[in-house]
Amino acid sequence: MTRKTCCDFLHQFDAQEPFISKLSKTIFTFLLLREKDD
């Protein structure tokens, strides 16, 4: 899953579930940061 795919997914999500989207962004950011460390 590319960063762009994540962003597109989150943008779609934002419109429907702002709270869940916020949570997802935090998780995605955490996962992306962990990926970089590897």
N- to C-terminal distance: 16 Å
Helix percentage range = over 70%
Envelope shape: flat
SSE-based structural type: mainly alpha
The tally of helices reads 2
Q: How do the helices and strands follow one another from N- to C-terminus?
A: HH
- How many separate structural domains? 1
Task: Specify Rg, calculated over alpha carbons.
Answer: 10 Å
Report the portion of residues in β strands: under 5%
User: What's the total count of β strands?
Assistant: 0
Look at the structure and give the mean pLDDT.
74
Low-confidence stretches: none
Largest sheet: none
Description:
The protein is mostly helical. The chain has one domain (3-37). The protein has helices spanning 3-16, 18-37. The longest helix is centred in the C-terminal third of the chain and has 20 residues, at 18-37.
Characteristic key phrases:
flat; mainly alpha; single chain; 38 residues; 2 helices
